[in-house]
């Protein structure tokens, strides 16, 4: 413990020198060695014994992570590294690689300035590698590359020294090609990885060694020697190599030399993630990481501590965090009082007196904060851009408490779980009284259900997983009249599919109602909306928009909030099957409102607005979209037939097939509804020889021959009439 106390003192001393800080995330595809690498870095900093490094999985502190051998939650560690006789503070976040926990990666990217992208030398860049790289570039996070498991290349694939270098070169080229394709502007500004420059390191996290060009110059160890050491297959030789070229030194040196400090990074990052006025005092304070400025703290993670309650972890862009501060949380009106401030050392949280701008901090006492909240001392501050995820919740289970006495506790626990993991959507099905939990995939929901029982002590039963569909329209309809129950208010709406370009902008978070109106209008017009529509947008809900194109209607402004409530109700649960809507454009073209405010209250306006939209959608060829996943399979050529048959039997299509040695790599795409139980079936079809991974691949229209059956099934499950609804059901009211 004395060693850790000493470490805390060193960390606290460096916190106030932003020039000496590096905030980094470790990102990669599942099983490419991120957690083993994190262990090594901790051992190098003296926080873990070298013998344990690589096997301790110190950042995987949860027993579920240890059991499954995968990272589920991001873990934060602060450590000190010496480079050229100076001490630097490295705040590291180890992120998950499994696609079901991709939300954690997105949130971690908001907290850091640089990312170490880890790639398996044998498997190369995998789908999740691409996803995390895209996420990093979008958040203005600079990448460096670590190619792991080089020993596998030498011993398993038996490549010679020259072939090894060619293969590693190809991997680097491919990563650069990805960076260029995702963001050419950054690529041209020098955000590419280059072995000669020193932004690429090679090594083996399991055996604690690594090499980079600067390290070769420093130690005189050559690539040929690396090859010979590994070829000898002698543990003594490998240990000797790890002593000469310790992984933590190579990697931390690379991080300190090539990844930006908060001072260098914040100006660019704040422009990318904050859309307030750049001339204000707070904007300048964030750009310069000013510890004396107003507080601007972005919450990227919330965890439960059995003793201290909720712990909010996040990035501090401006000001300083101290105990007892009164702060505002975006989206709420009351203030919260900060109780403790500290830093994480893996599973342990250590308290400090004061944390200045540029650091990653852990805070208790923010009871109103959720992931994505902006915490500030400046009343009315423009919040940070909300965090958008690469994939959406597509699988749902219904959760019930095993014992009735636990029901109140279950409600509280589900609220807590949804707060900790924003990629989880919890809803109450009012017809059946069930709580529905929607997540990224089967594993995601399984882990959450297990944690509810283990950590929160509530025994639950869950139904088998079902797919979440989306409702959309294919045609145009309207004007359709929606009448209020008292017949005094009428709304005339038209509906049509929202332009693809506009949908993409909303999804990428580039358009929101919080933007300055002129900027939003110009972007929308560039994406294909005409001028009147771009000017008339009054609400964006998920990927649906409400546009007011009426002229000079009295009392409309004061009624608009209620009209939009009706719109949002339909978008949350469409008329066809009560599934969420996607890509719907609703236009209000005319309205007749009663003079007297008493006659246009919520009970009149909301149903009128809602029914007009419901009827119009059913007239506009309402249909369902189903979620798809890309499925990547690596399989020996002899077993290829079994794998392709398995995909094609699940309404899947093969997009591409390539072979490498005796392995075939199949890239395919299949509906999520057909992929339940895929793990077991692909094992038996390929004698257990297939390695596979999935990635969310968006939504596609449900085949017409399946629509009626699936809609009826959903309606029956939700306790609705089984027959498909007609527009007249909503108009006759």
UniProtKB/TrEMBL annotation:
- InterPro entries membership: EFG_II, EFG_III/V, EFG_V-like, EFTu-like_2, G_TR_CS, P-loop_NTPase, Ribosomal_Su5_D2-typ_SF, Ribsml_uS5_D2-typ_fold_subgr
List the molecular function annotations (GO) for this entry: GTP binding; GTPase activity; translation elongation factor activity
Q: Which SUPFAM superfamilies has this protein been placed in?
A: EF-G C-terminal domain-like, P-loop containing nucleoside triphosphate hydrolases, Ribosomal protein S5 domain 2-like, Translation proteins
Task: Write down which residues bear the modification named Diphthamide.
Answer: 599
Q: Give the matching NCBIfam families.
A: aEF-2, small_GTP
Name the HAMAP family for this protein.
EF_G_EF_2_A
- What protein is this chain from? Elongation factor 2
Originating organism:
Methanolobus profundi
